[in-house]
Amino acid sequence: MTILDSPAPVLEDAAVAIDTLRLATAGSVDDGKSTLVGRLLHDSKSILTDQLEAVEAVSAQRGQDTPDLALLTDGLRAEREQGITIDVAYRYFATARRRFILADTPGHVQYTRNMVTGASTAELAIILVDARNGVVEQTRRHAAVAALLRVPQVVLAVNKMDLVGYDEAAYAAIADEFATYAASLGIPAVTPVPISALNGDNVVDPSANMDWYVGPTVLEHLETVPVGRDTAEAPARFPVQYVIRPQTAEHPDYRGYAGQLAAGTLSVGEQVTILPSGLTSTIRGIDVLGERADAARAPQSVTLLLEDDVDISRGDLIAPSASAPATTRDVEATVCHVADRPLTVGARVLLKHTTRTVQAVVRDIESRLDLQDLTRQPNPGRLVANDIGRVLLRTAEPLALDPYSASRLTGSFLLIEPSDGTTLAAGMAGPGLGTEG
Question: Are residues 283 and 268 in contact, defined by beta-carbon separation less than 8 angstroms?
Fold first, then answer.
């Protein structure tokens, strides 16, 4: 197996389908995230020989007796010099059982926004804790972000167990404290694993130093955890990306609406509603890779043909008439602020939802989330980088938003600075975390 900067092909039996798990790592500074990722790659034999030789050479220059596996993921010069992770590092690797897309995210408080980027598409988050320090504020922060982003699976990796003498009681106390906190956030599943990323205990292979632990290793859990929430069972949502009108002699009247099915199933003959206009029609045909199909399921990319010549353009949403979402110009949401410039009441922004971008204004910033005790601090006046808060937005045009709890794709959006296109915040429509402080 090899690890490259783009997904590598994996030889497999044609009868055996190998799926893909997207995951992200998170944790406080020096908890060992990059070392864990490096250990996963090293012990699963997922790195090239010349990469390992380069890491060994740099480690030797620093006077280290063993390779510093964190160097496999900390790719920026500043990261190598400071021994920290600054940007999100994506790695692609595979085993015989599954492919993986892994985002190694920074631990510093000022880079919490990078975790939002890395975890926004993840189906599993590995949150590391130093066994000597236990659950700290940044642990709570990352758990709260995972909960806000509705990451369905969380692994609590209690790292550096070698530095506490592989003590079961120390591990159990941390696992219990985190489980209580995760339950208050509404995180559906937490799997604790005691590890030493430096020595390889319980990362890929079971540890001989912790015979009291009978659960899976980190890699074993990653290979077996269920992948993919069944979006095909959710109400269908089809954001239109492009209108296809070739107007050729072969296709003089062809009018198709291309895009990726975000959720659900659409079938030929089904009545649909086009939003935000509210016009209705019936699906006449579905083209998939140049071939006609009777139905399409998420996340296929398809072209829909309708019975009626209705006015549809990029940014419109096609949904079954029986389960079409309501449209609104008043958006209540939780946002993670990611820009250096603050977000203030009255600010004029662009709101990008799926393929649709509209003008909007920040009518109110109701509260800011205190990640220490999960209380909402009312009327903060503004949100600065790495803040999480509740906002009210008023859009110039109606949007067909789902609650984020129902759909991570059609319930999310971005707030953008109109003057230069800077991303200001990542938003999640619907109820948020916390109680009034």
Answer: yes
Please report the DSSP string for 184-225 in residue order.
Answer: HHT-S-EEEEE-BTTTTBTTTB--TT-TT--S--HHHHHHHS
Task: Summarize pLDDT for 67-93 with one digit per residue, the tens.
Answer: 555 665 554 334 444 444 445 677 888
pLDDT of 373-401, one tens digit each?
778 899 999 999 888 899 999 999 999 99
Picking from 171, 119, 168, the residue whose alpha carbon sits closest to that of residue 147 is 119
Tokens 């490259």 sit on residue: 4
Find out whether the peptide bond into 276 is cis, omega within 30 degrees of 0. yes
Q: What is each CA distance from 90 to 87, 101, 219, 294, 321, in whole angstroms?
A: 10, 7, 17, 37, 40
Q: Is 354 left (phi over 0), alpha (psi -120 to 50) or beta?
A: left
Q: Measured between alpha carbons, how far is 130 from 140 in angstroms, rounded to an integer?
A: 13
DSSP state of 392: E
CA 391 – CA 406 distance, rounded (Å):
19
Would you give the DSSP letter of residue 321? G
Tokens (6 digits) for 48: 């090239």
